[in-house]
């Protein structure tokens, strides 16, 4: 039986880097951002629902999803974020469970769900362990602007659409504070990984 580890965290906190480090240590990763892209491919049921909710202005001329246009509309108001999540979360969870089942059937022991909205979507209910990656606001803001080439205003809007730090720390079995360099992050990942191995490896 596989052990499913949920990995979540704030935008700009370094969750993706932590996922890569855990993958290097032998965990099989399901990237829920990639799953989100799969379920919103051209012609998909989910993309049709998004178009009905946010208009066809979220589409590129070729009918594919324009993610920047969707993000601009979805993050413009809390009710729009809720609408986006109500459409995408169930589809992402369904596809993710299918992938986890396939990995389990192929003998994979530790499956990591790399999911930004692990807690909000309900996906955490399918996890045996939850890890949260958090960082100070100024650190995250700097990373987001550099990573996504956003304006200060756009970066702040994206951050404000997420829950507060306490939401992540209060709902996680392990919290990784990624305010430093990669060496500090790697050291924390090692400690978490070793503890999970001790608890779930007989």
Highlighted features:
202 residues; alpha/beta; 10 helices; 56% helix; globular
**Average of pLDDT:** 93
How large is the count of helical segments?
10
The outline comes out as globular
Please compute the radius of gyration using only Cα atoms: 17 Å
Order of helices and strands: EHEHHHHEHEHHHEH
User: Sheet with the most strands?
Assistant: 5 strands, parallel
- Report the strand count: 5
Low-pLDDT stretches: none
The assigned structural class equals alpha/beta
Please report the distance between the alpha carbons of the first and last residues: 13 Å
Q: What are the SSEs and their pairings?
A:
Layout (H helix, E strand, L loop, with lengths): L2 E7 L5 H10 L3 E4 H8 L5 H10 L12 H8 L3 H28 L4 E5 L3 H4 L7 E6 L2 H12 L3 H9 L4 H6 L3 E4 L4 H19 L2
Parallel strand pairs: 1-3, 1-4, 2-3, 4-5
